[in-house]
Amino acid sequence: KDTDPDSLRALTEKGVPMIWFVPGHARLLIGMHPEKNEIVFSDTWGPEYQYQTGDWDYFSNFHREMWTLLPD
């Protein structure tokens, strides 16, 4: 849970995929809107959930674990 907005924004700006684990589910964190204090994420529940946003409080309340996918 020691993620901070600046670190996450730096990773999303580099195109680093991040798997965001929430209770009983996982999402893909794909971007941030720092001026709006929002995260952008994709969910696997279907096309209508492909791109969603949530504020930082939403992220902090549901965040359980984060994995980054880095090339060798």
Written account of the structure:
The chain is of the alpha+beta class and 72 residues long. It has a domain of 40 residues. 22% of the residues lie in helices and 38% in strands. The protein is built from 2 helices and 5 strands; from the N terminus they run αββββαβ. Strands 4-3-2-1-5 form a 5-stranded antiparallel beta sheet. The longest helix has 9 residues. The chain is globular. The mean pLDDT is 84.
Question: Would you spell out the secondary-structure blueprint of this structure?
Answer:
Blueprint: H1 5-13, E1 18-22, E2 25-33, E3 38-42, E4 52-55, H2 56-62, E5 65-68
Antiparallel strand pairs: 1-2, 1-5, 2-3, 3-4
In short:
The protein is an alpha+beta fold. The chain is built from two helices and five strands; from the N terminus they run H-E-E-E-E-H-E.
Read across the widest sheet, the strand sequence of neighbours is 4-3-2-1-5
Structural class: alpha+beta
Question: What integer value in Å does the Rg equal?
Answer: 11 Å
Mean pLDDT over the residues: 84
Distance between the termini: 25 Å
- The number of helical elements comes to 2
Question: What is the global morphology?
Answer: globular
> How many β strands by DSSP?
5
Fraction of residues in helices? Answer: 10-25%
Strand content: 35-45%
What's the main sheet like? 5 strands, antiparallel
Order of helices and strands: HEEEEHE
| Spans where pLDDT lies below 50 across 5 or more residues | none
Note the quaternary state here.
single chain
What attributes does this structure have?
five-stranded antiparallel beta sheet; single chain; alpha+beta; 72 residues; globular
